[in-house]
């Protein structure tokens, strides 16, 4: 074990759960903010963001001794900007620091200056270093950030959005609902959602078809439900997030399904991306038992789910939407209420149709660049300096160039969304030729065994 001394004013590296280590400064917390019970931690303000949080002592390292190590394992523009902000802070504060040393000397000489605060100790466990590898697979339970505050905006369209007052925040100062929350489905998206619900203090009961996936969340404090029906009967509001329309129907209508646990007043929130016909069917059967129904599909990825930065599209029972306020704040950066059930499904399919088509076009551009003797990296560099620059473009292109297709959003799911969007267009006699063309490329990628890879693996449809 190594003993490290830290105190208010020190620069540190703070590890926020799944996020990479980030440079920050230990500061005094607001007077009205209580320290988490039973936790040895410091209040840290992070550079390059508006975020600040209570961080457990074992998730902190002094800045200077570990600077080179952290720069080697962490990359990215925002990270570099944060490091630059630290260096600028040090440069500006150099004179002040020298002055403070002079004050400390006077204090030691008994000149009336207040003595420096006694540093606290940090014990670093040699057998478990949360900083190694740049990110952790364990859900964050060490922080209680306070920077995200929400406001409700009524739009001319009649929809309502709940938005963070500070869009740079990762999570927020959330008062969790006293309602008991159930969650069915712990896949790429559901796992991050449940982790954030637990972090923000919600009481959550979980179920998953593969029961082993529940174990990690039980360790975090979740309760275990044996069947979907049992979860619904135990909880006031039950969310579900599964892969497709068939899975959503089976979960509700199947043996020991949701419908068997529905009683008057019970709330069911369908977060899966499915077609509007499935949503309307589920809404009707839930309502027939006296239940209250809301659809709330999410726009984002596994990383955004982990970060609590999803965009939630909701429709159905407005009172359920309001009851879910603290849950939506925990899992997302903004949410929209779009009216009657089915509207959120329609909007989500349109969004994913655009995203899927765009991804296929990017892959087509990268392969055409290679086929014509152009540098793919240069193509990406130019793309990221123009009007189409975005985190999405940068991340997906980097995935392709590195050959890293670890799923952030399954290729098979974006193909399913394209198929459903095309069908929705057919139902209103609206042409979708671009989506149809993209859909064929994804089907080709699926035939090449890319279904369980990230959507960016559509690239492989062009090179085989």
TrEMBL record:
<dbReference type="InterPro" id="IPR029154">
    <property type="entry name" value="HIBADH-like_NADP-bd"/>
</dbReference>
<comment type="similarity">
    <text>Belongs to the HIBADH-related family. NP60 subfamily.</text>
</comment>
<dbReference type="Pfam" id="PF14833">
    <property type="entry name" value="NAD_binding_11"/>
</dbReference>
<feature type="compositionally biased region" description="Basic and acidic residues">
    <location>
        <begin position="91"/>
        <end position="112"/>
    </location>
</feature>
<feature type="domain" description="PWWP">
    <location>
        <begin position="8"/>
        <end position="66"/>
    </location>
</feature>
<dbReference type="InterPro" id="IPR036291">
    <property type="entry name" value="NAD(P)-bd_dom_sf"/>
</dbReference>
<dbReference type="GO" id="GO:0050661">
    <property type="term" value="F:NADP binding"/>
</dbReference>
<dbReference type="InterPro" id="IPR006115">
    <property type="entry name" value="6PGDH_NADP-bd"/>
</dbReference>
<dbReference type="GO" id="GO:0000785">
    <property type="term" value="C:chromatin"/>
</dbReference>
<dbReference type="InterPro" id="IPR013328">
    <property type="entry name" value="6PGD_dom2"/>
</dbReference>
<feature type="region of interest" description="Disordered">
    <location>
        <begin position="91"/>
        <end position="145"/>
    </location>
</feature>
<dbReference type="InterPro" id="IPR035501">
    <property type="entry name" value="GLYR1_PWWP"/>
</dbReference>
<keyword id="KW-0158">Chromosome</keyword>
<dbReference type="InterPro" id="IPR051265">
    <property type="entry name" value="HIBADH-related_NP60_sf"/>
</dbReference>
<dbReference type="GO" id="GO:0031491">
    <property type="term" value="F:nucleosome binding"/>
</dbReference>
<dbReference type="Pfam" id="PF00855">
    <property type="entry name" value="PWWP"/>
</dbReference>
<dbReference type="InterPro" id="IPR008927">
    <property type="entry name" value="6-PGluconate_DH-like_C_sf"/>
</dbReference>
<dbReference type="GO" id="GO:0003677">
    <property type="term" value="F:DNA binding"/>
</dbReference>
<dbReference type="InterPro" id="IPR000313">
    <property type="entry name" value="PWWP_dom"/>
</dbReference>
<dbReference type="GO" id="GO:0140673">
    <property type="term" value="P:transcription elongation-coupled chromatin remodeling"/>
</dbReference>
<protein>
    <recommendedName>
        <fullName>Cytokine-like nuclear factor N-PAC</fullName>
    </recommendedName>
</protein>
<dbReference type="GO" id="GO:0005634">
    <property type="term" value="C:nucleus"/>
</dbReference>
<dbReference type="GO" id="GO:0051287">
    <property type="term" value="F:NAD binding"/>
</dbReference>
<keyword id="KW-0539">Nucleus</keyword>
<dbReference type="Pfam" id="PF03446">
    <property type="entry name" value="NAD_binding_2"/>
</dbReference>
């Amino acid at each position: 074990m190594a003993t490290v001394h830290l105190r208010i004013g020190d620069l540190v590296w703070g590890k926020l759960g799944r996020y990479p280590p980030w440079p920050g400064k230990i500061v005094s917390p607001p007077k009205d903010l209580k320290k988490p019970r039973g936790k040895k931690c410091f209040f840290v303000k992070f550079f390059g963001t508006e975020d600040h949080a209570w961080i457990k002592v074992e998730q902190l390292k002094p800045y200077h001794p570990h600077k080179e190590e952290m720069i080697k394992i962490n990359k990215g523009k925002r990270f570099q900007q944060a490091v630059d902000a630290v260096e600028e802070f040090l440069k500006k504060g150099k004179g002040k620091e020298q002055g403070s040393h002079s004050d400390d000397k006077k204090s030691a000489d008994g000149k009336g200056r207040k003595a420096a605060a006694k540093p606290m100790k940090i014990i670093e466990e040699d057998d478990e270093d949360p900083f190694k590898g740049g990110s952790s697979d364990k859900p964050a339970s060490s922080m209680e950030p306070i920077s995200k505050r929400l406001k409700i905006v009524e739009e001319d369209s009649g929809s309502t959005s709940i938005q963070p007052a500070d869009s740079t925040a990762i999570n927020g100062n959330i008062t969790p609902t006293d309602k008991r929350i159930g969650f069915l489905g712990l896949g790429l998206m559901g796992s991050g959602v449940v982790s954030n619900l637990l972090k923000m203090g919600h009481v959550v009961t979980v179920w998953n078809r593969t029961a082993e996936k529940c174990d990690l969340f039980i360790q975090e404090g979740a309760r275990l439900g044996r069947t979907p029906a049992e979860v619904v009967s135990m909880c006031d509001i039950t969310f579900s997030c599964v892969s497709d329309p068939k899975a959503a129907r089976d979960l509700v209508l199947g043996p020991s399904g949701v419908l068997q646990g529905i009683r008057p007043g019970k709330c069911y929130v369908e977060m899966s991306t499915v077609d509007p016909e499935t949503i309307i069917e589920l809404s009707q059967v839930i309502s027939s038992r006296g239940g209250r129904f809301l659809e709330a599909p999410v726009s984002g990825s596994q990383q955004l789910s982990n970060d609590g930065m999803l965009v939630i599209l909701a429709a159905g029972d407005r009172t359920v939407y309001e009851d879910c306020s603290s849950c939506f704040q925990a899992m997302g950066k903004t949410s929209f209420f779009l009216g009657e059930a089915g509207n959120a499904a329609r909007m989500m399919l349109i969004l994913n149709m655009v995203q899927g088509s765009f991804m296929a076009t990017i892959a087509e551009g990268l392969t055409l660049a290679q086929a014509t003797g152009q540098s793919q990296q240069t193509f990406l560099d130019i793309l990221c300096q123009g009007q189409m620059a975005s985190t999405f473009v940068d991340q997906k292109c980097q995935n392709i160039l590195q050959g890293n297709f670890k799923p952030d959003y399954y290729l098979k799911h974006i193909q399913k969304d394209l198929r459903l969007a095309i069908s929705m267009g057919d139902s209103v006699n609206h042409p979708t030729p671009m989506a149809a063309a993209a859909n064929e490329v994804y089907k080709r990628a699926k035939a090449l065994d890319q279904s369980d890879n990230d959507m960016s693996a559509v690239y492989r449809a062009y090179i085989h």
